Amino acid sequence: MSDCALAVHDLSVRYGAAATALDGLTLEVPRGEIVALLGPNGAGKSTLMRAVSGLLPVHGGSLTSGRVEVLGTDVTRLRPSGRVRVGLAQALEGRQVFPELTVAENLAAGGYVRRYRKAEAREVRERVLHHFPRLQDLMDRQAGYLSGGEQQMLAIGRAMMSQPSVLLLDEPSLGLAPKIVETVRDVILDINREGTSILLVEQNAAMALSIAQHGYILEGGRVVREGSAAELRADDDIVSLYLGVAPVEGAGQHG
Amino acid sequence: MTTTVSAPPTGSAPQPEVAPARRRRVRAGTIGLVAWLLGMVLVPWLGISDLWMGVGIFAIIAAVGALGIQVIMGFTGQISLGHSAFMAIGAYSSAWLGVEQEQPFWVWLPAAALVAGLAGALFAPIAVRIRGLYLAVGTIALVFIGAYVWETWTTVSGGAGGRLAAPVEINGQDLLDGYWSGGTQVMTLFQAWWYFAFAVLLVVMVLTWNIRRSRLGRSMLAVRDRDLAAGVVGIPVTQTKTVAFAISSAFAGVSGALLTAYMGYFTPGQWSLMLSIDFIAMVVIGGLGTITGAVLGAFFFRAVPEVVNWLSAYLPGISQDAKVDGGVTAPLLSQFVYGLLIVVILIFEPRGLNQLCRKPFRWIQQRREGAR
Ligand SMILES: Nc1ncnc2c1ncn2[C@@H]1O[C@H](COP(=O)(O)OP(=O)(O)O)[C@@H](O)[C@H]1O
Ligand SMILES: [Mg+2]
Predict the structure, then answer these.
(1) What sign does the CA torsion over B114, B116, B117, B121 have?
(2) Domains of chain A: total
(3) Which of A81, A105, A124, A152 to mutate to test the interface with B (most CBs of B within 10 A)?
């Protein structure tokens, strides 16, 4: 297990008295890999993200069983800030930048748990901005006024400021123009090549499988299918079920 | 899910007018700040009447409390109607130290901040667990608990009749007698108090400015705007709210201590819910989330009713005193015009006086850029 960047074992989640949102889910992200998590709306993808990053309580959810390990450390009982310290970072669904803070301040907030000294902070920021040249010109701009694509870049950049070993991305392509989706995809690849392991949640299955090594398909809170990205891409059922519903422009991307 | 209060411009729709780079906005701000500082230093020597100097001193003292509300409400997005209770705590602890213990102001003033801040920190664990309307109601309870305590704990409060406040003594002279040197009065009570209150306001402003720019300030705004995202980047949401509560209460304590020291005498009745609401109104009118907004709002709130009152003397058909037959009196008109003015300002510029004052600057800037 400890050779995994992220390991989720037998995870079950329930929201209040409602039906179980996740049911005995087991999943692994090997070090240095991109793992895609696919599935229709309501499958439980965001719920898994919350369970991993420790945000379940804020949403009124709770774990009924299971364990989450980051780099071999059991983080199940840790608070969100503790998990960030261990090496986990997340860009939330819907971007969620801090609209009133400038781009620079948003990035600084991302480094919160690291307590960087000034020079150190600048150095880390340089390294992060290297992936997002567009943000460089927008440092003094309030984040609320950025475009959707720029906000997505900022959300990922902010997550990278804590220098995570594992990055969780919840539907980064949601609501973005095809051209921008392509840029986001390239950035994810870039970040992964520099050593960060990534769990990528997407409805755009074509985009996700074009860069992932491995994929899981979630339905009704359970893994219904798992395999290498190549296998999943080749599977006719999956192509018709998931690649079919993906936006056309996404499907054309890895051609 | 959402925080209680958030400053208006959180929409994602691009508004070119309000999206200039920070740097440029700071320049207009710097000019305004320097002008304001100069003005504040000069005001006591412009021959302004004692009445207006008094109004100004009340405004300065209110600005200190408004900065406290700005920290909890403007920066952190938590509504608090308990501000007057923390002002009272500052007032009573300073009065006890300054009168019974005969401590100088440089002991009782920081002590007022400390005691009120501690009280805020004690209350915070309850406050940070409740949100929105419930938080508002929870903080109202503080005001009523306070009222009960002050009326029953007569050894400290003097009961319903009130008590003496702590004196501000500099070189052995009570500032309420003005400032004397070699048998001549150098400054009147109003001039001396203006500078004393202004000095305290400056200290609190600089503190607030530093908080806003620090890691803590960023966390506050992050919690206000997106508490989930704040949690996910590792910002301790509860702890940030707690610290904001304590700081806000400490500023309230300073404001309460100053207010009572200036008045010389105070009663339990004055720490009402209405006083708390006044402070919220100040930051809303002035502009949520900014230091300038808190100060502008406090001056507006304290000065405008007086201005209207004064103007009404020149209007026909208005009597200066209350009349038995219930005609239009100056105080009544004052309240009416004042309320109308607030509504008009907030319709015209929902982000308050702070943005309203910047509009001419921005207009000139756009003209200049257009000419190039
Ligand atoms: N805060 C919540 N309270 C109650 N039920 C929720 C909450 N969030 C999600 N759910 C339910 O949990 C299930 C999984 O949702 P979610 O994880 O958001 O799915 P996905 O991200 O795959 O679209 C859905 O049935 C959804 O209705
Ligand atoms: Mg989702």
Answers:
(1) positive
(2) 1
(3) A81
Q: How are beta strands A197-202 and A34-38 bridged, if at all? A: parallel
pTM: 0.85
- Looking up residue A221, the CATH number of its domain turns out to be 3.40.50.300
Give the integer Cα–Cα distance in Å for B365 and B360.
Answer: 8
How far away, in angstroms, is A206 Cα from ligand 1 center? 23
| Residue A209 CB contacts under 8 Å (≥ 6 apart), including other chains | A36, A38, A215, A229, A232, A233, A243, A254
Asked if residue A109 is part of any domain, the answer here is: no
Q: What does the domain layout of chain B look like in residue ranges?
A: 24-371
The three-state secondary structure class of B173 is strand
Are A162 and B233 a contacting pair at CB < 8 A?
yes
Residue B160 CB-half CA count within 13 A: 0
Which of B9, B215, B219 has its CB closest to that of A144? B9
Gap between the Cα atoms of A202 and A173, Å rounded = 7
Residue A64 within any structural domain of the chain: yes
B372 confidence band (pLDDT: 50, 70, 90): low
In this predicted model, what pLDDT tens digit does every residue of A186-240 receive, in sequence order? 999 999 999 999 999 998 888 999 999 999 999 999 999 999 999 998 877 776 6
Q: Topology of domain B24-371, per CATH? A: ABC transporter involved in vitamin B12 uptake, BtuC (1.10.3470)
Q: Which domain holds residue A209?
A: 4-96+166-251
